[in-house]
Amino acid sequence: MKKWITLFCTGLSLLAGSTMAEEILCGGTERWSVKVLTDANVNTINFTPVITTLDSLINLPTPVPTFSNPRIAGIENKVYTIRCHITIKKFESDYDYHLVLSDANNHTLIAESPDPVCATASSSAHVNEFIAVRNFIDAHIAWGNVYNVNLPDVDVTGVAFVDIEHGQTGVAPNNIELHPMLDIRFAPVGIDELKDKVLSVDVSPNPFNDHIRVHVISRLNSLQQCSIQFFNTNASLVAEYTLPVINHNTISETVKTTLPPGTYIYRIKSGGKMIYDGKLIRE
């Protein structure tokens, strides 16, 4: 079971009740609050990461969960960091990013990054970490499904989660996942992340009043038909503004808004695709 959220828009500014622009299949219902860290037992999690290996994780004894299990004590209240490489990235119908992680022995484990715009995920105290993870993935892996990811090793940090097996790509033998991911970065082997960064984004000030400044530079000269969307904490799209592109690689625009005070997730899109998420507060 999934939850439908319908979004409405006009040209430069979007408000509920206009012409339908897109429909986002957001999130799920099977232990969804556990997956996005909004469940009643989230305060039992020890967020100090345990440094371990993929092989050790997939050999932990795990119970068989049900669709309504609360957080499983002793397993799902721990955070792990593993060094691995990404072999597959899937862009799922609910907008989650599904990564297949692998080690030198070709053991696999799933790591998931929830869409920070989706309801419940957007209200999580860890939404900034969800945003940072997805921005890393967007910057270094192509859009959509990629079945031959070719990146240096990464260090992935996430909360342990025991899923119900349903034919997932890359599922571990004990059904354990890192869900949600809280951090991902290149393993420290001399890689200059700034050199490899294909997208530089600055959206400020934060907090803001009636305007924000949007500065984007793309090293790939691939920006086209860009816009910035604003979602409230109920995951409803409340405004969208066109962002003019200069020379296919630069955005430098001041956007005036009439958004009411509150917290918003913003999403920058290029050619209809998500390229960057962030969080802003309107004073």
Q: How many domain modules?
A: 2
| Helix-strand string | EEHEHEEEHEEHEEEEEEE
Largest sheet: 5 strands, mixed, barrel
Task: Please provide the count of β strands.
Answer: 15
Oligomer: single chain
Number of helices: 4
Placed side by side, the strands forming the largest sheet appear as 4-5-6-8-7
CATH class of the largest domain, named Mainly Beta
Strand % is: 35-45%
Kindly report how far apart the N and C termini lie: 37 Å
CATH superfamily of the largest domain: Nucleic acid-binding proteins
What is the general shape? Answer: globular
Judging by the overall fold, what is the CATH architecture of the largest domain?
A: Beta Barrel
What is the helix content? under 10%
Please, what is the average pLDDT? 87
Sequence stretches where pLDDT stays below 50 over 5 or more residues: 1-25
Class by SSE composition? mainly beta
Condensed summary:
This protein is mainly beta and 283 residues long. The chain has helices at residues 32-35, 54-57, 127-140, 193-196; strands spanning 2-9, 19-28, 46-52, 78-91, 97-102, 108-113, 154-162, 176-186, 199-204, 211-218, 226-231, 237-243, 250-256, 262-270, 273-282.
